[in-house]
Structures are given as C-alpha cells and as structure tokens.
Amino acid sequence: MTKSFLILIITLSLTLSGCATTYNPATEQKEFIFVTTPMEVSIGNSVASQIAREFNISKNIEQKDRLKKIGETIAAVSDRKDLKYKFEVLEDKSLNAFTTPGGYIYVHSGLIEEATDDELACVVGHEVGHVAARHIAKKLQAQLGYDILMNIAASRSGVSELRKAASVTFNLVMLGYSRKDEMLGDRLGAKYAYKAGYDPYAMITFLKKLQKKDGKELGFVFLRSHPYASQRIKMLEQQIPGIVERAGAKGRP
Predict the structure, then answer these.
(1) Exposure string for 24-60, b = 16+ CB within 10 A, e = fewer
(2) Rounded to 5 degrees, what are φ and ψ at 252?
(3) What is the rounded radius of gyration, in angstroms, for the C-alpha atoms of the chain?
(4) CA separation for the pair 245, 132 (Å, rounded)
C-alpha cells in the first residue's frame, strides 16, 4: 500500500466517521450516513448514463422548460442544497417520477401532461424530499456496505466498483421506497411546494387522480404506492395544516 493511498484511506475513514452524527433537517434526526455527497454524485452520474441508454429522453422543450422552472423553484427551498439538482423529462405516457443519487429528478411526460403546476410542484417536491432525506444513499450503503463504497472512493480508477454501484442503485430505484419513506416524501413535498408558493393540497388532488387510474397508466414506482394511496391522503389531510404553519412564509406570490 502506497503512502498516498494510506493517507486517502485514513482521510476517508475520518470523513465517514464524522458522518455518524450528522443532523439531517429533512428527517429532523441525527443519522449515520457514510455515503458522502461527492460519492453520491459520482454514482448518480453513472446511473444517469444508464438511464439515458435505457429510456427515451424527451425533446419536448415546453415540457422540459416547465419542469426545470418548477423544479429549480422547489430545489431552492429544500433542506438539501449541497448538490445541483438536475431535472429531466422521460418520454413515457405512464404517471411516474423518480430520483437517483446526486440530485437527478426524472418525470415521465404522461405525468407532466396530467398534472397542474401545483400538482407537479408537489410531485417534484416529493422526489426532492427523497434526495434531502437521503433515502437512496441509505439504501445504497445498506446494500453495498462500507467496504465496497470505500473502494469506490479510494481506488485509483474506481471504474468497476462504480459500475457495480450504479447497477445496484438502478435496481434499488426500480424497487421503490418503503411506506415510511413515501409518507415522508409526501410531507416534504407538501412543505417544499408551500414554501415555493404552490398549493400543498395539490399533493392530495394528485394522489386522488392516481386512485382513479388503472395499472397501465401508473408508473412502476407509483403503482407500488397505489394500494395505500388512501392512507397517504388521510395523513396529508391531517398534517398539511401543521406543515404550513411550521414552514413559514410562501415564496412565489
């Protein structure tokens, strides 16, 4: 082991150990997360390349501009600002949206066509909430473990380990989130939408739209949440007033 490699290992170890007591304002908890932001961005860039190969990236300028405008407004009021969010439209008629590491937010064209601006803001807020709560980072470190992620950060090339991490991450994204994570995503989505000047109750109207759709119209992520959409609606109806009160003033008039 070279001296420089040893120094890198020690530095990374100190960095990761420091993450054990990091307070996350999105979850309002101290969390043990050893996936650093640079590591997350590197994995996210690799996943983005895979998505570009396997999905049809939309060329609809109007939809792309609409998503970017709303997305950047939401990102500006989010609890996580240590990375640059990137918003992309995928050409697909199903109602779906998902996020990958590094701040990549993907929304299907079918959802953009169906949603009002307020609903789209809530959906984007929901996905940004997953990023802020670091849901994928937590799943990734649970799946890969300390050693593999450490190799990604410390190896001279990192190509093979990075590809493995990207592949695992892609599969984790396809599997969706736990019910608890989705509930938090809903609350954060409503919070960010309100702070950005949009109607937080549009999260409820969008979930009600999902209830009326059949499986073919729903994307793989939202399809998994469909059976308990009524529970999410009930939770939001109870909690949005408190979310609004704690969030403070609106942004957009």
Answers:
(1) eebbeeebebbbbbebbbbbbbbbbeebeeeeeebee
(2) -70, 135
(3) 18
(4) 20
What type of residue sits at position 178?
S
Distance, CA of 205 to CA of 182 (rounded, Å): 16
User: How many alpha carbons fall within 13 Å on the CB side of residue 236?
Assistant: 28
Question: Among the residues of 55-134, which ranges form H helices?
Answer: 61-75, 109-114, 117-132
User: What is the distance of C-alpha 40 from the center of its chain?
Assistant: 12
Give CA–CA dist 180/235, Å, rounded. Answer: 12
The residues annotated with a catalytic role in the active site are 127
User: In a 10 Å sphere around its CB, with 0-12 CB exposed, 13-18 middle and 19+ buried, how is residue 75 labelled?
Assistant: buried
pLDDT tens by residue, 198-250: 999 999 999 998 888 765 555 545 545 545 788 899 999 999 999 999 987 66
Residues facing 31 on adjacent strands = 22
pLDDT digits (tens, 9 = 90+) for 183-200: 999 999 999 999 999 999
